[in-house]
Every structure is written in C-alpha cells, then in structure tokens.
C-alpha cells in the first residue's frame, strides 16, 4: 500500500482537581479556544469541546503518530498554566491526574458531538462521577472505585 489512511477519534474526559467548580462561564469559551490552539499546534483535529464547571469533554481526530497521553498531558499542562497566568481563579488551578479516553467509530461521531454539546442537560440528571462510571462500564474498563477520583 502506497499511503497510510486512518480515522482515529477519541472522546477525552478529564476533571478539575478535586472536581471543584472552577471553570467559569465568563471565561470558558476563552479556555476552549486556547485548548483548540494546543490541539491544532500538535497537528490534530479538535471536533468539539464542552464541559461543566468541574470537567471537560473533547472529541478529537488524531493522526496515527499521535501519542494520546502526551497530547492530553500537553493540553492539561498548558491550559492550567494559562488559566493561572490569567488569574481567573483565586489560588492555583489544577487538573486532576489522569483522564478517560474512549474510541469513537465514524458512525458514532454525531452522537458523541450531540452528547458533548448537551452537557448542561446531562448534568441536570447525573453527577460527573455517575457519568464517568457509566462510560467506564459501557467500554468494559475495569476500575477500582477507591482509585477513581482523588478529592485532594
């Protein structure tokens, strides 16, 4: 085969440290634009980003040479540094260690986009922790509840 052709999509989820409600409506769009820039500078495609005051959902399309852990590390490190430089919150902003990443098929992209767009509606019915555990169960990912979240 003369070329490499891929479609690799990931639904990425990560939380503010301690799941604190630090992401304000006043500056969340600026944060989303900043994160979009990070993803684009890494030569990946951000399809949608949205979240709640205590967590984010991102749908990205990646190239086969993308190391997902490195990409998420860079998103979290650079965005938290930027939030702190902007002094958007009192004290220090941090993301919780770790993240969830779930593969998405081409046929599932529109459903994931709708899901991410409608975060506020989803969270009228369930907490972030409930939502996240549902993802882990749906993808048959084994986990230990005591290690799922840190509250520090």
TrEMBL record:
<dbReference type="Pfam" id="PF01797">
    <property type="entry name" value="Y1_Tnp"/>
</dbReference>
<dbReference type="GO" id="GO:0006313">
    <property type="term" value="P:DNA transposition"/>
</dbReference>
<feature type="domain" description="Transposase IS200-like">
    <location>
        <begin position="5"/>
        <end position="119"/>
    </location>
</feature>
<dbReference type="InterPro" id="IPR002686">
    <property type="entry name" value="Transposase_17"/>
</dbReference>
<dbReference type="InterPro" id="IPR036515">
    <property type="entry name" value="Transposase_17_sf"/>
</dbReference>
<dbReference type="GO" id="GO:0003677">
    <property type="term" value="F:DNA binding"/>
</dbReference>
<dbReference type="GO" id="GO:0004803">
    <property type="term" value="F:transposase activity"/>
</dbReference>
<protein>
    <submittedName>
        <fullName>Putative transposase</fullName>
    </submittedName>
</protein>
